[in-house]
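Data availability (excerpt). All sequences and predicted token strings are deposited with the supplementary files. A representative entry, NADH-ubiquinone oxidoreductase chain 2, is shown inline so that the format can be inspected without opening the archive.
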Amino acid sequence: MLKLNNFFLIMFMFMTIYMSMISSSMMFIWVMMEMNLLMFMPMLIMEKSYSYNSLYMYFIIQAVSGSMFFVSMINIYFIEIYYNYVSLFKLIMFMSIWIKLGVWPFYLWFIKMLNSVSWMIFFLLITIQKIIPFMVLSIYNMNMFSMMLIFVSSLVGCICVINEFSLKIILGYSSMNHMSWMIMAVMLNHNLFLLYFFMYFIISFILIMVLYKYDINWIIDLKYLYNLNSMNLFIFMNIFIMYMCIPPMMTFILKFFILSSLMDIYMIMFMLLMMLVSLISMYFYLRLMFMGLMFSLPKMKFNLYYYNNVNFMKEMNLFMFISMFFMIYMLFFFY
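Structure token line:
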């Protein structure tokens, strides 16, 4: 349950986000972004399990990226009339927002931080704290540089979960993957981004509330969730199916519209690459669900030693890899 202090801080954070959304001044947006940071820092300080080293790291990274944004914004405003360095400072501003979002190649600090906070702070970091940086990215158009960063960030978000057991790390990399799609959406269609972010916000909220309620932090802890009742299993499976973005879920429709927007601007190869990454991410979601189900079966006696055994993990990966190719085959067979 939220403490009263945290509640007021979150309300002020929402106010800064709203003020940023209705403003067209980059200077005002920067001020709101820094105020949002000041509202968030006390919540981190009040975290009992939070490491002060991570707190200092977060503050320094946000301060440096905010300074980069401010300096580039001022230079764009004053130099545009006289010099031809505007594109350079726009690139610096773009990279400062990339740092704030915590996507590739500036993702390690973000994953480390997510693994050291409570589920409530985790939820705020992957949702609310991303809104203002996304609004800034809406001024940019898709180009080869941004497409490369989006693709690699999405791919890294899928690959890095191999042999990870912490659900916070797994969901952190999953947020990188979804952020890649949201960055595409905000550059292509603002309304499409709002729909995608709203769906991601709701799904993440439900999932994290379930994990928080039952104190689930590791894959092996999923057996406690599965063993409670069939409704918990049903909710958990549906949430992950929505994360996988497969039909007939709303998330699939939103991804379909994003891919259609890419086709409209003739980015066919980039569209195919993002579809491939989506299939890879589907494999890891299925792997996670399968492992949780295996540990929930009462007749199968697993222990931590066998769970951490490398051969066992290889067998699990091989099984899910074969299953993924079977699904791809069935997809082409029916369509």
